[in-house]
């Protein structure tokens, strides 16, 4: 969790509601926000004008871009992402990003302007019931109609967004409340009786879990974003190393454990690795750490790990027994739970069991990986692009992906040596996520090499954010894997809809010309012999760089668990 | 798993919009709410929603978990019918003439222990409290005589298990560091 340097302002100051908004943000330690102005939020923009030195506002090209940028920023830094938008269409444009942040537990504070309070409910110009609309996709939301409510509402908003299982919150502020004056005083929010962010660790449960782990002959650990959110990477590593526990990740947990760690047995789920999926149905104790058994991970639940005892380390009680019946639930923050559990487990070795993973890995390598990374076909694969990035970088990149085939390929093949390095839209699968999220990640981590991996389809969903890169000189690297198809949908049509390719062909414009127009260095690679040099050039380039790689149109992502199939029915082709 | 009738009690802070947050949880899972009643609880500032649904126990548990997860929900619990003492109130408007004629209608009202709340020349308002089956029985019995208007409240329920709301609130307040 971020260092909390929330300031309590000492003496009261008379100011307007809009000034109170910006001073609350500053007191909360925020120095960067994303947004887009408009009528109902103009007073806040006016107040921002006076504090530009302390609080930078990034003007995205669409409010959806602001939310994804704030998500990228939050995911890369562990801080709360902040977005600002006007009422009506500005506010509704935030919804896709808010929903994405909700399902992927990303801390966001969204501030929207609203029509003046006397106009509420009158269908006034640009009035939308954003409280009602955002309710199902926010952790909490609140409408401010009086200036004096602002500091308290924002302090509470940040507290709720950041604590426990993080998530997005929205504070809607009527225009009259922005103009009104108040005696400003900012106090950090301390908590509330109706909200217990982190359940207290029950040591009895930890003991029960340890007993199961100590007796296990074939244990398997599944880890998710909970490890990252709790900053429990070290504790996690100590835990699995002590008892020699093979560990597989969800895409939200990716990069919490180094790719080349000998206990990292790969990716779970629909396009994950062969070994962990197969062996989920063979393990005797399944230990889930900060993951929520999403259906893309489990496949058919009635044939999921039925033979295993299930241990679930989880911060959110509502996740326990939601999808998979749990034998021992250890509620709490993963950092604490893992430390306590590591103390109670025995040192152990599971050589034979690990060998099973290695055997299946080899099978997958021969059937799938070899041809993905070193294809013998004339057409290029997405896998070989990722392989070149691994080869020519220090593998300390922050990889941001969009949604589709390239996302699965990027997650499968990108190598990581640092945590918080893979940013993807997991639960929502929001196309258009990557470009703005990569911008936000780069702004949060200017020191890092941030590489966005996007499909030709998703690129065009938020392509306007190239303008943000141009204006703010954001040195992100953008790789478009161009297959001239909505590839993932095409793959399903091929496999499950008798090759009836309804509306998945993309007739694309010349991306080079477009991106050039934004002053970004570009390169298009159509032949394999040019790929390596282009990747090297991109990685070495100081500023932003756009690399378009023409890849095979009809390549499919394997392995694959078809919808409705069991994890152990995973197909290699 | 078999579906049963459950009473869910949700205790919330007194804030605008909380009813919407509560109802979204049911809407999202396409669960039909059979009745809902809301009032302030024995603790000032904490509201109590009594919600009746027919669902599997497994599903009810998940719903209650999601309810309790809402930031402004203090506590949510569920009970099968045999663990609650519950009542509903029903009001019936019938033509006064029907009762005055000294016929069967009067007998029915007596046998159901219904109360007469108001007598006007045109109509009379009767009241009966009880389980839904009981208020429904009176409805069915009066139907042949003509019912001009009928309304039944949502179920209100007191749970038999003894843990008090105030002890729960006290414990929760202890967790908030000041
Ligand atoms: C906003 C949104 N609309 C539709 C989809 C459904 N969808 C999932 S993957 C995909 C195709 C993506 O195509 P592209 O961006 O070219 O990536 P590729 O699969 O070809 O790598 C689509 C349409 C989605 N995930 N998000
Ligand atoms: Mg494509």
Decide which structural class fits the backbone of chain A.
alpha/beta
Low-confidence stretches of chain A: none
CATH class of the largest domain in chain B: Alpha Beta
The fourth-level CATH homologous superfamily of the largest domain in chain B is ACT domain
CATH architecture of the largest domain in chain A: 3-Layer(aba) Sandwich
What's the total helix number of chain B? 6
How large is the share of residues in beta strands of chain A?
15-25%
Dominant shape of chain A: globular
User: How many separate structural domains of chain A?
Assistant: 3
Write down the overall mean pLDDT of chain A: 97
Main pleated sheet of chain A: 6 strands, parallel
CA radius of gyration of chain A is 24 Å
The biggest sheet of chain B amounts to: 5 strands, antiparallel
Quote the distance from N terminus to C terminus of chain A.
42 Å
Describe this structure in words.
- The complex is a heterodimer of chains A (573) and B (178).
- With 573 residues, chain A is α/β, with parallel strands linked by helices.
- Chain A has three domains: 13-184, Thiamin diphosphate (ThDP)-binding fold, Pyr/PP domains (Rossmann fold, 3-Layer(aba) Sandwich), CATH 3.40.50; 203-357, 3-Layer(aba) Sandwich (Rossmann fold), CATH 3.40.50; 380-550, Thiamin diphosphate (ThDP)-binding fold, Pyr/PP domains (Rossmann fold).
- Chain A is built from 23 helices and 20 strands.
- In chain A, the strands form four sheets. In chain A, strands 3-2-4-5-7-6 form a six-stranded parallel beta sheet. Chain A has a six-stranded parallel beta sheet with strand order 11-10-9-12-13-14, sandwiched between helices. In chain A, strands 16-15-17-18-20-19 form a six-stranded parallel beta sheet, with helices on both faces.
- Chain A is globular.
- The model of chain A has no long low-confidence stretch (mean pLDDT 97).
- With 178 residues, chain B is α+β, with helices and mostly antiparallel strands.
- Chain B folds into two domains: 3-85 and 156-177, ACT domain (Alpha-Beta Plaits, 2-Layer Sandwich); 86-152, Alpha-Beta Plaits (2-Layer Sandwich), CATH 3.30.70.
- Chain B has helices spanning 18-28, 57-69, 96-100, 104-111, 132-142, 165-175, and strands at residues 3-13, 35-40, 46-56, 73-80, 84-95, 115-119, 123-130, 147-152, 156-159.
- In chain B, a hairpin with a 3-residue loop joins strand 6 (115-119) and strand 7.
- Chain A binds chain B through residues 131-132, 135-136, 139-141, 143, 160, 190-196, 316-318, 320-322, and chain B through 12-13, 16-17, 20-21, 24, 28, 61-62, 65-66, 68-69, 71-74, 169, 172-173, 175-178.
- The complex binds thiamine diphosphate and magnesium ion.
- Magnesium ion (MG) binds next to helix 19 of chain A.
């Amino acid at each position: 969790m971020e260092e909390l340097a929330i300031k309590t302002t000492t003496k009261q100051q008379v100011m307007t509601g809009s000034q109170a908004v910006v001073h609350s943000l500053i007191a909360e330690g925020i120095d960067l926000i994303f947004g887009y102005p408009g009528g109902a939020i103009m007073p806040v923009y006016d107040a921002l004008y006076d504090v530009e030195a302390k609080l930078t506002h990034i003007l995205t090209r669409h409010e959806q871009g602001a939310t994804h940028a704030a998500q990228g920023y939050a995911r890369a830094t562990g801080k709360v992402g902040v977005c600002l938008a006007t009422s009506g269409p500005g506010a509704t444009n935030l919804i896709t990003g808010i929903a994405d942040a909700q399902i992927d537990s990303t801390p966001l504070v969204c501030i929207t302007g609203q029509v003046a309070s006397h106009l509420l409910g009158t269908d006034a110009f640009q009035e939308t019931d954003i409280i009602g609309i955002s309710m199902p996709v926010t952790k909490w939301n609140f409408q401010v109609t009086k200036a004096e409510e602002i500091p308290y509402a924002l302090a509470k908003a940040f507290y709720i967004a950041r604590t426990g299982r993080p998530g997005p919150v929205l504070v809607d502020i009527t225009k009259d409340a922005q103009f009104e004056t108040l005696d400003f005083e900012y106090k950090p929010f301390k908590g509330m009786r109706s909200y217990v962010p982190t359940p207290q660790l029950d040591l009895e449960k930890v003991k029960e879990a340890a007993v199961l782990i100590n007796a296990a002959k074939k244990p398997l650990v599944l880890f998710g974003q909970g490890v990252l959110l709790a900053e429990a990477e070290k504790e996690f590593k100590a835990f699995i190393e002590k008892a020699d526990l093979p560990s597989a990740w969800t895409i939200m947990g990716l990069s919490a454990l180094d790719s080349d760690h000998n206990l990292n047995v790969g990716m779970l789920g629909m396009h994950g690795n062969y070994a962990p999926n197969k062996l989920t149905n063979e393990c005797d104790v399944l230990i889930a750490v900060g993951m929520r058994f999403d259906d893309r991970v489990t496949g058919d639940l009635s044939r999921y790990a039925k033979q295993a005892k299930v241990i679930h380390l989880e911060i959110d009680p509502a996740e326990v027994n939601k999808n998979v019946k749990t034998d021992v639930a250890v509620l709490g923050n993963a950092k604490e739970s893992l430390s306590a559990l590591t103390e109670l487990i025995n040192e152990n070795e599971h050589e034979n069991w690990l060998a099973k993973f290695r055997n299946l890995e080899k099978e997958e390598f021969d059937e799938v990986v070899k041809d993905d990374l070193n294809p013998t076909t004339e057409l290029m694969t997405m896998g070989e692009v990722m392989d070149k990035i691994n080869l020519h970088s220090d593998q300390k990149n922050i990889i941001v992906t969009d949604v589709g085939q390239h996302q699965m390929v990027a997650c499968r093949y990108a190598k990581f040596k640092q945590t918080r390095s893979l940013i993807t839209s997991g639960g929502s699968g929001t196309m258009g996520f990557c470009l703005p999220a990569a911008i936000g990640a780069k702004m949060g981590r200017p020191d890092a090499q941030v590489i966005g991996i996007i499909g030709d389809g998703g690129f065009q969903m938020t392509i306007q954010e190239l303008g943000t890169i141009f204006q703010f000189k954001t040195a992100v690297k953008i790789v478009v894997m161009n297959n001239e198809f909505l590839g993932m949908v095409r793959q399903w049509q091929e496999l499950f809809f008798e090759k009836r390719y309804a509306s998945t062909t993309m007739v694309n414009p010349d991306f080079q010309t477009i991106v050039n127009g934004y002053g970004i260095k570009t390169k298009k690679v159509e032949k394999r012999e040019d790929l390596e040099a282009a990747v090297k050039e991109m990685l070495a380039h100081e500023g932003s760089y756009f690399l378009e790689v023409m890849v095979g149109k009809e390549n499919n992502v394997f392995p694959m668990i078809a919808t409705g199939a069991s994890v152990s029915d995973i197909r290699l082709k | 798993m078999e579906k049963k009738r459950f009473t869910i009690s949700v205790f919330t802070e007194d804030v605008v919009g909380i009813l919407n947050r509560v109802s979204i949880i049911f809407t999202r899972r396409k669960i039909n709410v059979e009745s809902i009643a809301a009032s302030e609880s024995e603790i000032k500032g904490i509201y109590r929603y009594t919600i009746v649904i027919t669902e599997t126990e497994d599903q009810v548990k998940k719903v209650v978990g999601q309810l309790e997860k809402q930031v402004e929900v203090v506590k949510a619990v569920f009970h099968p019918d045999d663990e609650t003492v519950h009542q509903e109130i029903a009001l019936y408007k019938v033509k006064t003439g029907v009762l005055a004629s000294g016929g069967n209608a009067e007998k029915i009202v007596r046998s159901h222990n219904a109360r007469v709340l108001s007598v006007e020349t045109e109509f009379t308002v009767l009241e009966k409290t009880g389980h839904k089956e009981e208020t429904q029985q009176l409805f069915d019995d009066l139907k042949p005589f003509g019912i001009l208007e009928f309304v039944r409240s949502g179920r209100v329920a007191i749970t038999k298990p003894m843990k008090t709301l105030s002890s729960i609130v006290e414990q929760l307040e202890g967790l908030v560091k000041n």
